[in-house]
Here is the input.
Amino acid sequence: MKAESNVAERQDQTETRERRHQPAEYVHRDEREWETIRWPGQTGKMLFHPRPERPTEPNAGIVRYEAGGHHPLHNHEFAQVWYILSGEFRIGGKLYGPGTMVFYSDPHYEDELSTETGGEMLFVQYPGPTTGGRPIYDGRFNMEERKAIGAERTDI
Here is the structure.
């Protein structure tokens, strides 16, 4: 009787786990096209990104910088991690290269960034654990046409 009870309990736990937990998703970078990002000299392939039916999905993918690419000091309410894959980047006046990981808690500001070499970074932006701020995909990572820097908001 006890063995049957244990088997039934394990089956119930397995069924509960299967209902609550989602399987992994896999996307190769070659499955996406390069899209225009809001800052000069930047294009990106967001392999995952928030959408109405999945609002907490992170912006996660590769950002490519042309030589001379840059962005100004600006703020965000979400959290994010960058990992430099190639190239050298001057961030806040200091030079960083491949193998460097950058963590931004929420809320945060991003110092001015520029690159003379160009390069690529892995970006992962996710909802802020303390602010609840969500990363923005539409109009940031999928622009038809880039606006002038002065026309972009830098306070979010």
Summary: The CA atoms of residues 84 and 121 lie 4 Å apart.
